[in-house]
Amino acid sequence: MPSRSGAPHRVVIVGAGFAGLFAAKALRRAPVDVTVIDRTNHHLFQPLLYQMATGILAEGDIAPSIRDILRRQRNATVILGEVVGIDPESRGLVVDTFGRRSDVAYDSLIIATGAEQSYFGHPEFAQFAPGMKTIDDALELRGRIFGAFELAEWEPDPEVRRAWLTFVVVGAGPTGVELAGQIAELAHRSLRDNFRRIDPTEARVVLLDAQHTVLPSFPESLQRRAARDLERVGVETYLGAMVTGIDELGLDTNSDDPRMRRIEAITKIWAAGVQGSPLGRIVAEATGAGVDRAGRVHVRSDLTLPGYPNVFVVGDLMSLDGLPGLAQVAIQSGRHAAKAIVLRLRGDTGERPFRYDDRGTLATISRFRAVATVGRIRASGFTAWLLWLAVHLVALTGFKNRVAVLFNWTVAFLGRGRQQRTITAQQVFARQSLDSDADHIRIPGSHRTSSQPATDQPLPTRRTTS
Q: Which CATH number is 123-272+367-414's, of 3.40.50.1970, 3.40.50.300, 3.50.50.100, 3.80.10.10?
């Protein structure tokens, strides 16, 4: 693994999710220079993103600054930007930071940009049924969920009011189940007595999936338990129903039940699938690597690319042996790549296949209700819920974040409060503003933007109205 004579080995990590961050930490004592590149300034603890969308947690609770996390790691540097190009022959990257482009060289490269929402060939669905992969997504969903109750209170037409109070979650995997359960709990517990013209407990929460079971990755006994718990908390579950169309006022399905072929609902949330980040295809085109149907990059058993032993693809972006997109897969693959780099620098060039250690899977349905599988152990109900709390609390990055999350959990789960209920019109309508203004975003002093020469004018703004 050659590098510049007399200079530290340069390791560039693209993405600061679980895989990227744990790879960086694993290199803290190695004789290398680590550069972490991410298009946001924070590390997102994605498993708790739905609790931010439903008012339990604040964004700072689950998204600490990358620079703060790595502040004591003296061999680490952080760059805010998005990688838009790679030259594996010259070992260089092109990084775009709001229109300003720069080149970053590497000796070893770890690509860990994760996954994004997939609409299975229907990107137009995103306008009316946003997904939940980023802080922006969660803030938008929070605005839509709480805003729906506010506008239902104001709405005089009973039919329109019912549409405001109908929430549809598409996708019955862990994210969809957890989100549907929390919306139901929000309506039945947290918002009780908050309104004068509507009864929040009359809200309808619908969970849809084209598959014929909830939580398909769990054992059948836990699938049945989760389905019963969803029914008990007030979630209507309809399986084997594929969404065929979405508009502002509702969605259409191919359900055999005529009543479910059209659902009038203003708030729709998409949790049905994921695909590899766009960088996956850029890397594949530059290196000749293959990608699967979801845009994930095929890697060798040691997580490197064929013909490029110094390039690792890890986490949700890699395609290897059907491994699921779980946090533990990301963490372990990131550490594996970092360890391989250190061993090579010591002269050990032997290939070490990645071995995933399955430590179990958990999903929560609502307060006091969860399912868990750890090895041969199956747990559900209150015991699984306590296990879920403990595992996620320990996994959080930083003591301050653990304290903040524990406090907000105490308020929400032992009481009825939701500390994070503040919403703004900007949160709800920012998607449209960003879509129309994205080509004009620039940073002061840059020599060009993504579409036009730089000017001395300030960043454009857009007034949004509800």
A: 3.50.50.100
Rounded-to-integer distance, Cα 426 and Cα 294, Å: 32
CA distances, 124 to each of 89, 118, 434, 439 (Å) = 37, 11, 15, 19
- Cβ neighbors of 362 (< 8 A, separation 6 or more) are 370, 371, 372, 373, 384, 387, 388, 391
Per-residue pLDDT tens over the stretch 37-70: 999 999 999 999 999 999 999 999 999 999 999 9
The set of catalytic residues is: 178
Helix H or strand E encompassing 333: helix 327-345
Give the helix, strand, coil percentages of the chain, each rounded to 5: 35, 25, 40
What is the predicted pLDDT for the residue at 431?
Answer: 60
Which tens digit of pLDDT belongs to each residue from 11-45?
A: 999 999 999 999 999 999 999 999 999 999 999 99
Could you read off the pLDDT of 219-270 as tens digits, one per residue?
A: 999 999 999 999 999 999 999 999 999 999 999 999 988 889 999 999 999 9
pTM: 0.89
CA neighbor of 135 nearest in space, from 220, 48, 6: 48
For residues 31 and 361, give the distance between their C-alpha atoms in angstroms, rounded to a whole number.
Answer: 36
What is the rounded CA–CA span in Å between residue 96 and residue 310? 23
**Residue carrying structure tokens 């600061």:** 16
- Per CATH, the homologous superfamily of domain 9-39+81-117+275-345 is FAD/NAD(P)-binding domain (3.50.50.60)
